[in-house]
Amino acid sequence: MGTGSAPASNPIPAIERSVDHAELEPGDTDTDPISVSAEVPESIEATIDFSEVELADEFAEPELAVTPGGLLPMEPSPIEGRLRKAPLRVPDELEECGGFTLFGRRIKSLLYTTDVAVIRNSNADAIFAVYPFTAQPAITQALLTASEAPVFVGVGGGTTTGKRSVQLAAVSEMQGAAGVVVNSPAPPEMIEQICAVIDIPVIATVVRCDAVAHAKVKAGAKILNVAAGKDTPAVLRELREIYPNLPLIASGGRSSLSVRETVQAGANAVIWTPPSAQQLQADMMRRYREAEVKPEVPIMDPVAAADVNPLESARADVPIPDELIAKATTGGPKRQRPFPQLFFKGRRH
């Protein structure tokens, strides 16, 4: 690197080397420090913008709120029951969904099941209650009674169609359903008839992005349920290009990878299929059998849980303390009151 002259408006400082490059042999390197004759200011001011930097949770300071009692965390601790919890939690990837708003409620996850025990022990935002039988109001009422989340119920479209599906949709709205789902064979004319009767949204199931899907949207379908199997992400992308503001839902499968792929394809909410109650029961029994030690105390003491009579609802394998038995049987046998004397007066012996 040689020295040269530069315009006076922007002078370049000269660089002095102790060894000339022309004197170096091939393979030799110049490791001596380079002396640069440049003026360095006494103070250097620099600013760094951390607005786009995301800190890990362990380094981020919790958000605090000013209250009369002092500074409290903005997000309080979750509330769980001693016995009742939500063991069936939806995958964390579903939080990446944008969701859609239904009657002021944000919905990102839908639980695909009709098992009331699974519904009662899940934290999904809504229930997607579609089953391969003719829709019956009695089943709908049972699901609505057990669920604490909005329920979308199926009203036919394949085996059940026509006027009966329209009537089932009207009854479902009166029972309290948040929306009705029609299967892919349902024609756009039937969707139009349902929309003319009910005031809750109609979810139309589509298997491809074609003229039938467009006709269902024009007929009044507020949400499209994409059920295209392995082609679901591709169909989602096609529909998202045409309908940027229309809520789209689709099944995300069981794996985290498939759920993330569905979200990235443009789904506003994901339908999650949970494990069945039979699978969960089999897994629990396997863990019980593999347990080496037996817990010292039962998880729930039925003796302490009984309010009226401590001996009721007690399991046979739980020993009952002597003091509770004595308490339940205090006072000994009741003495029978003698008959009054007037009872025998005037009777012949």
Q: Could you explain the architecture of this structure?
A:
- The structure is a single chain.
- This protein is α/β, with parallel strands linked by helices.
- Among the domains are: 92-279, Aldolase class I (TIM Barrel), CATH 3.20.20; 297-333, no CATH class.
- It is 26% helix and 14% strand.
- It has ten helices and 14 strands.
- The chain has helices spanning 116-120, 137-146, 163-175, 188-197, 211-219, 232-242, 256-264, 277-290, 302-305, 322-328; strands at residues 15-16, 35-36, 64-67, 70-73, 100-102, 105-107, 109-111, 126-129, 151-154, 179-182, 202-206, 223-226, 248-251, 269-272.
- The strands form four sheets. The protein has an eight-stranded parallel β-barrel, surrounded by six helices.
- Helix 4 (188-197) links the parallel strand 10 and strand 11 (202-206).
- Helix 3 packs parallel to helix 4.
- The longest helix is centred in the last third of the chain and has 14 residues, at 277-290.
- The protein is extended and about 95 Å long.
- The termini are far apart.
- Residues 297-314 have low confidence and may be disordered.
